[in-house]
Amino acid sequence: MISRLLMSVSQNEVERTSERTKIGLAGAIKSGHIPHVAPLGYKHEYKRLVIDYSTKDIVVRIFDLYYNGYSYQKISNLFNEEKVLGKDNWRDSTIQTILENEIYKGDFIHGKRTKHPTYYEDVVEPIISKEMWSDCQVQKKKNSRSYQRTLTYLYLQKLKCPKCNRILGGKATTKKNGNAYFYYYCNDCKIEFKEKVINDYVNQFISELVEYDSVVNQFFLPMIKQKFYEPREQLEKEIKEQNNKLERIKKAYINGVFELKEYNEEKKIVENAINELESKLEITDYTEELKFTPKDILLKRDIDFIDKVKLNKEYQARTKMWKDYTRQEQAELIMKYVDDIELALVGNEVIVKQINFRDSICKPCQELYDNGYIDTTKPMILGNVLGSVRFSNYLPEEEVGKIIMRLRQYYDVHYTEATYYVDKQMFYFNFAEDNSAIVRVFPLKDYYKLDPEGKMETYEFGILYINEEDKFQMQEIDTAFDYIPDETNDSVIYTKEPIPISVGVKPVKFCEEMQEETN
Predict the structure, then answer these.
(1) Contact by Cβ (8 Å): 418, 427
(2) CB neighbour burial string for 5-18, b if at least 16 within 10 angstroms, e if fewer
């Protein structure tokens, strides 16, 4: 009895100790103390896993390449050719391990190979977004070799059979004149239809998609993200650490720890990391000098719309339209933004039911829209004519005023107000201009908060518009396409005469040439 009692007490103590250890480990993991070797892109600092800014961009690049259709093998071959990190032994298994590691989206799984793993969310600072990580997991099937084709299919892996929900295959026929005609089919359900069915639906909004892609790829968002994700203090600290590491390598070589060949290899890796960090620091300095904000995105879209009306010939010559894209470029754009396309059967006809966009695209766009910094196009009936109008969300009056004054540095932009009747879904304008064009419509109050249930009878909206006879204010037309007015310039000169005026501007896109011009 005593023996059994002692064993019971001992077992109880073991279980309590185990429980305390698990609780302590869970607490440590939640605070960023990850009990593993730091993966590429991270390092241990005071026992916590933090981002290693000297290698972070390699991880970002791996995810970007895979997201855009590169296979594990193709990425590893590319890295071996470029000798990334001074290595030529990159393996496809290494790339796969990185892409499947939850740590890069900020999460951690303890006991991943056991029967009862524990999942911890948001325990470290992420290198990539959760949406991007999820997209890359979905991408696995799309990157497999069985889907490599000699012809380019715009919607391959995006379409599912409306009957059995399986991924549709693609085929093409080439006529004597050299034109190729593409089809999608399901062998099991004997369904086949032309690609034109999808094209006719997609063409309704493809110009908006191309426009948004242009905004994403322009200077603003990359610079804003650069400034947010790579703060100056962190970069300076990392450069200091890499310089200290370089000194340690030198001392080790002097003390005979390294051979000359090994020393040169290690030295080159560290020096490359320092150069990369210093380059990022220069860009961050330049970003802070320019002071780019999300308001610049809305301003640029306003200017683009006006340019399309006022300088249409120049706009068409400078802007790449959907028709100007090669078929491969069109497929890449659809791959980048579209998650899948839902189909339905009406009798024997296949129709498009819905297009689902990737979360990694929709989420940041929605955040910008909610905050009033990007617009959307909404249908509108003007008299008996069906048209559309650019609509943006609520911004405080002070911010709206600044955007208008910045626009007036380039164009005679006019402002008026209109009443919107909620029940009738109708605007009543207090102006009637024969040759005017509405630039953008926006609410004067935050009606999403004031009237979430839509019980108010009327809303008040602000309207920006231009007249046909208004002239471009700048001496050089290039200004309207390559620059935007600088927010810090408060000396607005407002005139209808096309005379030279001095305006502080920011370059739309960043490159070394522009940096030299600005300096």
Answers:
(1) yes
(2) eeeeeeeeeeeeee
* Inter-CA distances, 505 with 343, 487, 511, Å: 47, 8, 15
- Look at residue 332 and give its three-state secondary structure: helix
For residues 395 and 461, give the distance between their C-alpha atoms in angstroms, rounded to a whole number: 11
Q: Which helix (H) or strand (E) holds 109?
A: strand 108-110
Q: Is the pLDDT at 242 greater than 60, yes or no?
A: yes
Token pair recorded at residue 42: 């991270």
pTM of the model: 0.59
Any residues with CB less than 8 A from the CB of 9 and at least 6 apart, and which? Answer: none
Three-state DSSP at 478 gives: helix
Please report, in angstroms and rounded to a whole number, the separation of the first and last CA atoms in the chain. 88
Q: Around Cβ 64, how many Cβ atoms within 10 Å? A: 14
**Cα separation of 404 and 402, whole Å?**
5
> pLDDT tens, 266-287?
888 888 888 878 877 766 665 5
Q: Is residue 465 helix, strand or coil?
A: strand
The amino acid occupying position 404 is I
DSSP string, 165-217: -PBPEEEEEE-TTS-EEEEEEETTTTEEEETHHHHHHHTTTHHHHHHHHHHHH
Q: Using one digit for the tens of pLDDT, what is the confidence trace for 23-58? A: 554 555 655 667 678 889 888 887 788 888 888 888
Own/partner pairs, 306-310, CB within 8 angstroms, 24+ separation: 306/407, 306/410, 306/411, 306/413, 306/439, 306/466, 307/480, 307/481, 309/437, 309/466, 310/411, 310/466, 310/470, 310/472
H or E element at residue 138: helix 130-142
Handedness of CA 28, 30, 33, 34 (dihedral sign): positive
